[in-house]
Every structure is written in structure tokens, then in C-alpha cells.
Amino acid sequence: MKIDLKKMDEFLETHIRPLWNDKGMDYPYRVGGGEVYLHDEVLAKAQPLMVLERIKKYPKDSLHGALKAHDNLLSQFEWSRAKDFILNTPEQELSENVLRLFDDSTDFQERLDHFLEWSMVSPSPDSENKMGINPTVCSFFLAMHDPVQYAFCKPMTYQALAKLLLVDEDPLNEPVQRIVQCTAFYKTVLRELEERYGLKNGNLLDVHSLAYTLKDLQSNAVSSPDASTKEKQLIEQIRQTDDYKDFKKVQLEPKIDRERRAWELLEKYRGAYTQEALNEIFDTVDLNPNNVRWFGSLLAHPNRNLIFGTPTDDLNGWIEKLLFSELPVEKALDDCLGKGKFKGAGNGLATLLLYLKNPDENVVWVPATEKGLAYLGRIKPGKAVSVGKKYLSFRKEAIDFRKQHQIEDRELDWYLSYISKHFGDANTQDDTGTIRYWTYAPGRDATFWESHYSNGIMTIGWDFLGDLTNIDDKETIRSKMQAEYGDKSSHMNSVLACYDFGNTIKPGDFVFAKKGKSQLLGYGIVQSDYYFDEHRPEHKHVRKVKWIKKGVWDTSGNQMALKTLTDITNYPDFVDYLKGVIGPVDRNSGSDRYDKENELQSIFLSDKNFDRILSLLEYKKNVILQGPPGVGKTFIARHLAWAMLGAKDESRTGMVQFHQSYAYEDFIQGFRPDENGNFILKNGVFFDFCRKAGRDRDNPYFFVIDEINRGNLSKIFGELMMLIEADKRDGYALPLTYAQDSGETFTVPSNVHLIGTMNTADRSLAMVDYALRRRFCFVDLQPAFNSDKFNTFLKDRIGIPPALIARINARIGALNTIISDETKNLGPGFCIGHSYFCSENGTGDLDDNWYRRIIEYEIAPLLKEYWFDNPSNADKQIDLLLE
Q1: Domain 437-590 adopts which CATH fold?
Q2: Which site among 162, 196, 276, 768 is 20 to 30 Å from 364 CA-CA?
Q3: How distant is the alpha carbon of residue 236 from its chain centre?
Q4: Is residue 24 scored above 90 in pLDDT?
Q5: Where do the AAA+ ATPase domain residues begin and end (predicted)?
């Protein structure tokens, strides 16, 4: 068997020799070979159990003991299925077949054929769980018996090394042929390690360890050799989409015009940037003809309010230095985003202004454009550098990308944002509401278990990483760990634990708390998103958990991984095992019971009206709540779902927000590129939600679509336009647009309920499609000023003085009358909602200053948009509210 020695040397010298030389690693490598622990721990435990005489006498104990020594070389489902097979097979039968497998006097391939046919994974006769010894576990037993003669062959690990080194051969896929080829290939590599790299007492586990290191490097690599080809294919794919055609035909020219006029205004007002002047500039560049913000939250009013909190002289000096000084861009950014930075000023604002000055030489640097470029493999995390240097690197790669694919300078931000949205998270878990199961260690030796159980939280360490919401990828975590520990280890398990804790875990997930490998301490359900608690002395990465059950249960018969955090969702047999050990698992007990009578006190609807909406939802299956901003549409939608569920059960509710770029491919199904650049069919959020509900038809499920009329509904729903009708559920099935087979159909289960919300005050939105309109019941929600529930809530729940409550009712009520009467441009759908005054999370005294802040920074910007063509009237109404 021939291997490419040049590539082998390059791989070993570049990636492995530093590991051979680094003696301070958690898992050191043998000089010339692989990780020490495979020999000193795994093999040392397993090989004495795999001798022939012991297998003859004690086959079950020997094989089961070897499995327990595996130290995560096997997946949980491989481990559990093999264990069940071993324990359920008669001793004599087990002994005969394993000894035949180990008999070197007969043909290796024939032995494998016989053993794998005998031990084939199949359903257990006593349960729905599967059991058996698959090819990977078979190769594990062979390697533990004699690692010099037999290779441990994990398919993806073996293929990674084979694709790199094999000459004139391709790695084989058929299991028996794969194990035979892998063994011969690993022996060839082993000889080279012994002869050319000085490996002493080596075996094929050394080669497996190096192959696994290569696979780990490849799976975490940012770019690939054929990235340019994949990139070109991706750009061509984007150019065929309706989104791009619409952008090119309808949006691009107005965008160019707006940006040119914004730069003219920046020059016009130079040195005299008042709040009014900056608002004019921001609105010019940011609002398209339909009053939809192009740059999203970057120039929206909440961020503008932060900017305008800076003294005018400081603002003018900041813009002058950034745009009109002789400073190089790097220096100007370092100064303006370093000591000169103020609230609201960040990478996005600074680079947007630079881009307006010269779009050919600058690029808007916001998370969406950066993620788009990162997805293309053109940027990756590195050592900490100044913001100026980082921008120059980002700008260079972005402009190279633009020129390579003949993209216009003012198209670039659209392309990168589109890639970020549609492809950037293609390899991460999407927000489908899918329940995941985790094992979790609350500190070393479960040190924090008692306090975590009492406080309803789970935490992890690695506090030096800081807030994980500021870290987008695993490579940044890895780099920070290597810097902290002063090594070059992959820190694979630690990196994955931190990434999953900050990004992958979702509210509604199950968590099994554990100590070590064989003690289960309890279980709970995740209740919150991740947050970083700076006030904790240690373990500052936190999520809230509703811990449900507590105790000590032995799992030595089916050990858990030693890692801090492990996703076991894809090992249903193991999940069922843990549930069986701990006893009945009640999902609703992990959710807050929904006390309708109490909860209705914060919903300013009468009991009769709330029950009426519930009955409509039960009858029609589909309801849209419509009304002006601030009447609690989304809040009420969630409460409707919880009321029908009887619990605040996030596992049976899903939510998405429509917008103008949202498509059928996001919602139902479409093609997305995989990690190899091939386009594969991926299911959308509603498809997965319906599949999940279909597996649990005895319970209702609720899907909330926020801002439903922001999307192109006919385009998003497609053939679901018919399937969502109440009388078309279950009984009707249609093939989807991207179905691979005409016989492959989809239906919306009868236990799925849709709740949409619609803002009647948004000028940018089209009317809801009439075909879709008849499939929903529409419920109007109105502001609740002067209602008894609203007054009681403000007084008793929030603590607002009665005099201030009266002022809120009188002044907002009078304003809403004016808005309602102005039917030509406004009307009842534009009234001010009560939610502006209902937050229970505010700080400070609930006094006149609190009221003025709400008016000045939340309601006044809205009124200015309402009367954009009559600013004096807007100012008049604001003054009346504030007087």
C-alpha cells in the first residue's frame, strides 16, 4: 500500500511535532506517535480483559469491561447497543463468536463477515430499543485484543487520514472492506512512524490518534482547498434567487441615491452636526421608500438616542477626526473607537460613515457582514489586535471578494448580509423548538449541585472567556484557552462545552445533572437564555433551570461521559435509560403551571374576551391578533398558548418573526450548502415544528408568527396555504416544492395552532393576502388606558402613584383621540399602546422623570414618524404630553 510521504511529513511537522514537544498538555503525545492516554489508560484497562483464556471463561464480563474502558472512543449509542447485546446473549454463544473473530489462522475478511452478520444491530426482542455490535465496535474489540495487528477503525477518522495520504486508492465505505483496508493502511503509516520518526513500542492506536487529530483540525478549519470554486457556485446560486433579482431591479438604485445624498449632507453640515442634522442624514441613508430601515438597529431610534446623549461638540469632533482628518483609517478608528468612543458609536456607525465617504475603498463592518465573510472562509479569529488593524483585514478580504466576483461596491453589504442570514448558521442548530437532552456536571465532583438546585441555575467555569454572547465561533474560544493555558492543545471538549452552553442549549431542553461517570443527581428543564453574571465569584456563565427531581442514582451499568456538558439527544436509547433510572419524567412539572386567574391580571382583556379568543383558536386553529404598537399582541399570543397548554411549556411552543427577506426556504424547506459546499435539502422551522407535533398528537402545539404581515405571505406559505385550513389538517397531504419524490408528502397536524400578530401602524406593510386572510380569524386589540385592570396593574404591581396614573390616562387618551380622528393618514390602528408603561423591569423611581423618559425616548420618536410631513404638529403633541 503506497502513501504520500511528502504530505505525511508536512502534516506531522506542522501539526503533530508541536504536540510531541509539548509536555505540559492535558493529554500529552508519545514521541513519534499518538496520545499517551490511549495506551496508559484505555489499553491498559481493556487489553487484559481481551486475552483468549479470559474470554473463554467470562465472555460477558470481559467484553462489558472492555467497553467501560473505552473512555469516549465510542459514541453513547454504539456503547449502549453493544452492552445490551452482550448482556442479552448466552455466554457460550458469545464466547464462540468472539473467539472465532480473534482466530488469526483464518481469513480476516471472512471472520469479519461472519461476526458482523451474527451481531447485526437490530431491535431488541423485549423493547423498542436496538442492540448489536456494529463494525466500529467490532474493530474496537479487535484493537483492544491486539493493537499491533488490528486497527480501531472509526469511519470518518480513518477517511480523513486516508484521503490525505493514500496514493492510487480511495477509502472504502463497505464496513468489512473498510476495516481490512484501514488495518493495512494504518500498518503502513505505523512503519513510517517507527522508521522515520522514532516511535518506540508503537501500535495502530498511535495511528488512530493521529488520524483523529487530523479530523479534528479539518472539522474546525475555516477554509478548504476548493473554497474559490464553492464561493463562485454560491454567488451564482444567490444571483438566481428572487431576493437578489428584486434587490438588483428595485432596491439598488434608490440605495445608491440615498447614500450619495447622505454623503452630501455630511459635507454640508460639517462642523455643525446637530441632532436635527444627524437625524436627516441617518434617515436619508437608512430609510427606503417604504420607510423600512436598511441598516436595521444600527440607525434605529434606540441607538440614535444613545448617540444624541453625547455633547454636540464631542460628536462633531468625533466625525471630523474620522472623516476629514489626515489620519490613516487605522489610526482614526483606533482613536474614535478607543478612548474617543461614546455610547451608540461602534464599528458599524464608524465604518458606515467611512463607506459613505468612499464606498469603493470602505466596507460597512457590522456583525452580519462579518459573519458573511467568515462563512466564506475569508476571515477567521486570530490573536487580539487593535480595532483599526482588524478593520483593515476585514476590508481587504471583503474588497477582494467583491472584485473577484464582479460585485458593485454598493451591493457588497447586501451580499454579505444575505450570506450571513441564509448560510452563515447552516451548520448550527436552528430555533425549531426541538427538545435536546444534556448531561451536565455542576462543578468538579458536583461541588455546586446543592446551591444550583436551590437557586434554580446551571453554570460552567472558564470565566476568563468573558461574556460568551460576544464570541461567535469555537475557534475564538480555542484561541483564548490556548492563550490562557499557554499550550497548543485543541481543548476540544472544553471548547464544545462553552460553545454549546452559550449557543446551542435552548429553553425547554432537559438537563441531567451528574457526578463523575456513574452518579445521576437529578434533572431539570432549562428556563432561560445564556447570560454572564459578573457578580458571581466564579462560574459566571449562567442559565436558569427549573430543577425537578433530586437524589442519587447509580448508572455504573451505562456510564455517562466524563465531560462537563454532553449533548445526548442523538442517543435516544441512552436518554431512555437515564429516564428509567431516575423515574417518571414529567415535562409539565418542569414548567410553571399556568394560573389563568392570576395571569389575566396582567392581560388587559376581560375574562370573556380572552375566553372568546381561546374558543376561536380552538375552532379555527389559526388566529391573528392585530392592533397598534404597544397593545401587547405578542405577550397575549404567548398567554393564549400557555392557557390552552395549562403550563408555560416552551417545548410545545415555537416562534418566528417574519420580515421582507423571509422565504419559503426558511419556513418550510429548501436547499442549503453543507460543510463540503454541496447543496442539500434542509427543513425549515415550521416543517420541523409540525413533525415534532405529529409525534405527539395527544397534546396541543402552538406556533407564534410575530409581525406576520411583514413577509410575502403567499411566497412563504406556498402550498401550506391550503394545508393550514382547519378542515384540511391530517386528512390532506401534498408534496412540497422541493420534495425529492412525488410520493413524499407533507401535512399540518390537527394539534398545531397558529397565532399571528400584526402591527396595524406599520406603513411599510402590504395588506394580508385575501386567500390567506380567510384562513385566519382576526382579533382587534385596543389600548387599555382607563381600564380597571390597567389602573390596578400600574398601582399594585408596578407601584406608580395614582396622580401619575391619572396623568398617563388623560394625556395618552387625549393623544389617541387625535390619532384616531385623523383617518386620512392615521386612524385607530396608529394609537399608542399601554405596554410602554407596563414594564416591571425598570430601574429608579417611578416618578415624573420616569414618565418623561418614556415620552421623550420611546413615544416621541414614534410621533415624529407618524407626522413626518408635519413636524410642528408632532412637536406640539409631544409638548402636550410633557407639560
Answers
A1: ph1033 like fold (3.10.590)
A2: 276
A3: 27
A4: no
A5: 619-782
